[in-house]
Amino acid sequence: MAGSDLKRLRERMVREQIEARGVQDQRVLAAMRKVPRHLFVQEAMTSHAYSDDALPIGSGQTISQPYIVALMSELLEVEPGMTVLEIGTGSGYQAAVLAEMGCEVFTVERQRTLYSKARERLLEMRYFKVRCKLDDGTMGWPEEAPFDRIIVTAGGPSVPEPLVDQLADSGILIMPVGRSRRSQELVMLRQKDGVVTEERFGGVAFVDLVGEHGW
Ligand code: SAH
User: Where is the active site (predicted)?
Assistant: First the structure.
């Protein structure tokens, strides 16, 4: 598919799937207009890269639906220069969107194949502000903590305690939490002066967060 066609599809994705559903943060919209999502999916999926769906990325995992990436990026209320910890690198797409928004991104993936591919892809695309780690992300990244923002892109039974401990003051954490696998609610924690408050933002369906503090 020609580059200009892909750009047109990407523009349409932002207009019809994201703006039309109420995402207004201009930095989120600009980042999603810029990041070439088709380079984060398997080649056979190129023509589907801008459709309103999650897509397989190998190893039984998925790249999230564009709207969900936009919604979570907006809910994070990021400012340029902030540090963001992401759990679940997957394809690296969400990390690229946050980097495009000016954040310094620390992303953790537990599956070696996905980790290696995403790391290589992000370097090739010159996202030098993203650092990747192969590990159980439910333990966070203690050496780099605290983080201004934390985003978990896999669904778990509860927010892992180490992540709450690694959230900076005035920090925001967002994560799909649910009693059953593949059906969760988007939960946001805000930390202010040592007090953590919780808000919920409706149903989502993410792949499982596994590991020490996962399923
Ligand atoms: N954010 C990704 C999509 C994430 S899919 C993107 O933009 O493409 C969820 C990912 O979380 C999968 O790759 C899965 O392997 C990973 N994952 C699940 N449990 C994990 C854990 N404990 N630590 C790190 N990664 C984990």
Answer: 64
Q: Is residue 67 in contact with ligand 1, taking CB distance under 6 Å?
A: no
Answer for the pair 156, 186: CB distance below 8 angstroms, yes or no.
no
Count structural domains, the chain. Answer: 1
* Any ligand 1 atom below 6 A from CB of 107: no
What residues make up the domain containing 108? 54-203
**Mind listing the pLDDT tens digit for each residue in 55-67?**
999 999 999 999 9
Average pLDDT over residues 150-165: 98
CATH number, domain at 153?
A: 3.40.50.150
DSSP for 176-210 reads EEEEETTEEEEEEEEEETTEEEEEEEEEE--PBP-
